[in-house]
Amino acid sequence: xxxxxxxxxxxxxxxxxxxxxxxxxxxxxxxxxxxxxxxxxxxxxxxxxxxxxxxxxxxxxxxxxxxxxxxxxxxxxxxxxxxxxxxxxxxxxxxxxxxxxxxxxxxxxxxxxxxxxxxxxxxxxxxxxxxxxxxxxxxxxxxxxxxxxxxxxxxxxxxxxxxxxxxxxxxxxxxxxxxxxxxxxxxxxxxxxxxxxxxxxxxxxxxxxxxxxxxxxxxxxxxxxxxxxxxxxxxxxxxxxxxxxxxxxxxxxxxxxxxxxxxxxxxxxxxxxxxxxxxxxxxxxxxxxxxxxxxxxxxxxxxxxxxxxxxxxxxxxxxxxxxxxxxxxxxxxxxxxxxxxxxxxxxxxxxxxxxxxxxxxxxxxxxxxxxxxxxxxxxxxxxxxxxxxxxxxxxxxxxxxxxxxxxxxxxxxxxxxxxxxxxxxxxxxxxxxxxxxxxxxx
Length: 442
Ligand code: DOR
Ligand code: ZN
Ligand code: ZN
Known about the structure:
CATH class: Alpha Beta
Low-confidence stretches: none
Strand order of the largest sheet: 9-10-13-14-15-16
CATH architecture: Alpha-Beta Barrel
Mean pLDDT: 96
Number of strands: 20
CATH superfamily: Metal-dependent hydrolases
Oligomer: single chain
Bound molecules: (4S)-2,6-dioxohexahydropyrimidine-4-carboxylic acid, zinc ion
Structural class: alpha/beta
Shape: globular
């Protein structure tokens, strides 16, 4: 007898009416007929998707918990249909040493209600091999705040790591970590130059923000990074691509043999710089929202590997400062799925592509073999969606501490109604149940 059976599931691409049997947190079978079982949930024909993996979140814990913490951030994840999140290292302290990496595993492990992985930051190069033994999701570098010399050295150090998937970090020179660098791509000098010109020229309207960090800054940085990646034969993952030209540079590099993957956020895909008019600094994010003529669109998703939310929560009070002093960042965990399901209802996107972008590809790129698809033997991570349910984005209902969104007032059709992590219900009809999330590693 198994632990749980999900009846009358509609799984896109697999089966229109089937039963998924769960045992010990794993998918035991996908069948036509219902098995004998302790607990049954009847989905009544609703869509069952693999649990979503958000490869780009900022949970702010430790140190910045007035903005978000692992409890509230992971509740936001569960609420939005995400069963695994990969956290960024720019907390306080930053996750740049093996010690801090281990501390963050403890903190997240005691509070998170969904499963999690951690990106490691890079400061001291001699920490790279030490952190590599601890199964980081990637080494993350913010190219908007470091020099080319530092980038060169970091690429060189990561390229020295020798990957062996069968080694659990025991042998001295072989690591379970597959060398991967994630990057925030904006050229530091161009950003500084353009920002100073506007800032010291007395401009303070938030509409100028896209000019303070122009498309060119991103495109120069992306070109630079793919060149470094080719040179050191390293897989690079480009975070939050915002312009179509960046995408073109990435695809050209890929055709030339560069190991490069890329990500887009819902806000860069669906909004443009006109959001500054209505939302001011609440729409401020790095890289900025772009003018219509440069920006990426939903139709570009065929050449994008993953959607990451870049859930970057801040306190409303600090977001209320002027354009130069308000921190950049938009919370995204609780809006991403319903925004994309709305695109599916409008026939702008398919379930097949959505599953690739938010489950299969993040699992493949970040080396999470037991997650990302509905198959026997995989973790029983799911999100159930109701494609007929309609609503309006209302930040006051967020589980996140960051109750703002430039999507406020957006009409959506298609919403997550239940989230399960390893067979445990963590969200049902908006109510979150606090189960223990686990640190995931290959
Ligand atoms: O908008 C952003 N917010 N971009 C970043 O790169 C950092 C992030 C944050 O941590 O707030
Ligand atoms: Zn970034
Ligand atoms: Zn980020």
